[in-house]
Amino acid sequence: MIAVEKMIAANRADCCGCYGCYNACSFEAITMVEDEEGFRYPRVDAERCRNCGKCERTCPVLNPIEREQESTPVTYAAINKDEAVRADSSSGGMFHLFAGQILAQGGIVFGAGFDENWEVCHQSVERVEDLGRLRVSKYLQSRIETTFQQVVGHLRQGRRVLFAGTPCQCAALRRFVGKNDENLVLVDFICHGVPSPKIWRNYLALRARKKEIRRISFRNKNLSWERYLLAISYGNANKYLAADLNTDLYLQGFLQNLYLRPSCHNCHFCKKNRPSDITLADFWGVQEESPDMYDGKGTSLIFIQSQKGKALFQQVQDRARIKEQDFAKAVRHNPSMIQSSTPSPKRAAFFWDVQRNEMDFMKLLYSYTKPPFKVRVKQWIRKIPGTVALVHMIKGKRGELSS
Ligand SMILES: Cc1cc2nc3c(=O)[nH]c(=O)nc-3n(C[C@H](O)[C@H](O)[C@H](O)COP(=O)(O)OP(=O)(O)OC[C@H]3O[C@@H](n4cnc5c(N)ncnc54)[C@H](O)[C@@H]3O)c2cc1C
Question: What is the span of the domain harbouring residue 40?
Answer without folding.
Answer: 3-58
